[in-house]
Write a structure and sequence with these properties.
The chain is mainly alpha-helical. Among the domains are: 19-192, Up-down Bundle (Ferritin), CATH 1.20.1260.10; 209-217 and 225-240, no CATH class. It is built from 11 helices and 2 strands; from the N terminus they run αααααααααββαα. Helix 1 runs antiparallel to helix 4 and helix 8 (139-162) runs antiparallel to helix 9 (167-192). The mean pLDDT is 89.
């Protein structure tokens, strides 16, 4: 059972309306790395989790993410307050109202379509979608994805903090950004508390391919480091790339029943190209270079 506490998790103080900034902040409301996506990702993972510790953690963080959705949505609503009233009551001259609503981002869409309320879109007005939720049902895979999601969200908050000089907004966004750090730490602890957490899943990789580095981009700029050289790596360089990794022929083959093989051969014969022909084509005619 959910119970809503009307007090925000963090106090929102907005100095003045700013519809353009509001539209940019929607990235963390209905964007791919926003709070709704995080809440739904962790909530659905938690419902399916078999481990009681991870289940508790995921549901705790999912619920907190909903409170963060409320904080960022409240900031958006406060930033749109002036425009909402002006639009509803036609308080400004048409030209002034138009300029205020088209100051930047998709602020005009937020005002005209949503009346200044926070919409479940990203900063470009693209509607939120469940396709943002990339859970796979394996804890070693999903926890890594969660760590990456929290990292991405922190970076977006950093960029949003950089584009406003409103101290109250900076403070609230700083709080939300910091909670991303705390959640990342929790997910990392949960991941590394699983004894055999790499590679993800149940099956081990096929040796020696699980320690093979393919140096496929060659030429000036080739660099060596712990990601591609050292005792744990086998390396394939440019001169080795003319043969398949498995030592086979490098062809694609399939065993076909006799009747299907006969049909396939008939199709190949019917559609065979004539290598010695040089037909007159539309391109030839259109070029104007046809020789009689």
């Amino acid at each position: 059972m959910f119970s809503h506490n009307k007090r925000l998790q963090y106090t929102v103080r907005v100095s003045e309306p700013n519809p353009a900034l509001a539209s940019l902040l929607l990235e963390q409301f209905g964007g791919p790395d926003g709070e709704l996506a995080a809440a739904m990702r962790y909530f659905t993972q938690g419902l399916a989790e078999e481990d009681p510790g991870r289940k508790d953690m995921l549901l705790d963080i999912a619920t907190e993410e909903l409170s963060h959705l409320e904080v960022i949505g409240s900031i958006v609503a406060m930033l749109n307050k002036g425009a909402k009233g002006d639009l509803a009551e036609a308080a400004l001259e048409e030209a002034e109202l138009y300029r205020s609503l088209t100051a930047g981002g998709n602020s005009h869409t937020q005002s005209i379509l949503y009346g200044g309320g926070p919409s479940l879109t990203n900063s470009s007005g693209v509607p939120w979608t469940a396709a943002y939720i990339d859970s796979r049902g394996d804890p070693t895979c999903d926890l890594r994805s969660n760590i990456a999601a929290e990292s991405r969200a922190k970076i977006i908050y950093e960029r949003l903090i950089a584009i406003t000089d409103d101290p109250g907004i900076k403070d609230a966004l700083g709080f939300l950004m910091t909670r991303e750090i705390a959640h990342q730490k929790s997910f990392e602890k949960a991941l590394y508390s699983i004894a055999d957490n790499f590679p993800p899943g149940r099956l081990a990789g096929m040796p020696p391919y699980d320690s093979l580095y393919v140096n496929a981009s060659t030429g000036p700029g080739d660099t060596e480091g712990p990601w591609n050289s050292g005792p744990e790596w086998e390396r394939t360089d440019e001169n080795d790339m003319d043969k398949p990794a498995d030592g086979g022929e490098g062809t694609a083959q399939v065993e076909l029943p006799a009747d299907k093989l006969e049909t396939l051969r008939a199709m190949a014969q019917r559609t065979a190209s004539g290598p010695d022909s040089d037909p007159l084509t539309g391109a030839d005619l259109g070029s104007g270079n046809v020789v009689d």
